[in-house]
Predict the 3D structure of the following.
Amino acid sequence: MRPAKAAWERAYSYVTGFLARRLANYVVLCLIATFLAYTLASLTFHPLDVLLSRNPPPSPATIAAKARDLHLDEPLLERYFSWLGGVLHGDFGQTIDGTPITGELGRRVGVSLRLFLLGTVIGVVVGVLAGVISAVRHYRVTDYLITVGSFVVLSTPVFLLGLLLKQGALQINFAVGSNILQFTGEKTPDFQGGFWASVGDRIQHLIVPTLTIALGQIALYSRYQRSAMLDVLGSDFLRTARAKGLTRRRALVKHGMRTALIPMATLFAFGFGTLITGGVFTENLFSWYGMGDWLVYGIGQQDTNITATVTLFVAVCVLVSGWLSDVLYSVLDPRVRV
């Protein structure tokens, strides 16, 4: 037992050190991403143009005071490190209008995570299962149906898919004689009710936009998973597992599906980070004002602090997702542990 325990301790120590090193690398990459975003925004944005375009235009004294408030009279590096120092203390600065970013950040992060995290989880789980089924039953009716359905969804623009689902929700509401499916906003304005009634109201608003995101993810991941699973089905280790007495289902689940998930780990992890800002169409279509919509607003207002804050949030999402991807690799692939 002692050699086995020592081997396990060595493997645990190696994996822990490996993940710690990867986490340190991701932190450095996160800092680089925010620095590049802040620098690019500072060099290209002209935030005072928003004030100068007002009618009547503000006085030169007002413009000069606003430039001092935005620290435009300071060197770029000094402005960045001042902003970064505030971030480390929980202060993300202010918008051009003087609104604190920290309060708005918490609300918008909650909106984006509530919408995209649930849609991604559903899309990944169902997409992987659909891909596995499609691969196991390749060139059969099930495979053709999943393939055609996936290509139809992938070829449909997100805004059109959302509009079709909204029309379907309207038909369902008309059929049941009640607005059980809401699709405008994250909640009913001025909703009156208790805690559970409020939760139910939010769920009603969450179903249709979540389904819009999930369908696209299901179609995408099912294609990747089908291809990865087909590569595994003809492998020698799977035939060896069958020869040792394992049933076909157990061999596919324990050895085949687990191996096919290894190349998908990176896709799962980094796809979520980019989905948040890539979901601008979904947020605008259903009036969910999250981080993607905020990024578009910040660029339109030429607001460096908003743009850098959203970039930092996406970088952190990619950082955490990448780190979880490494953890998933160590779980799925024994070679990483030994």
Notes: Residues 70 and 96 are 7 Å apart (CA to CA). The domain at 18-337 is CATH 1.10.3720.10 (MetI-like fold).
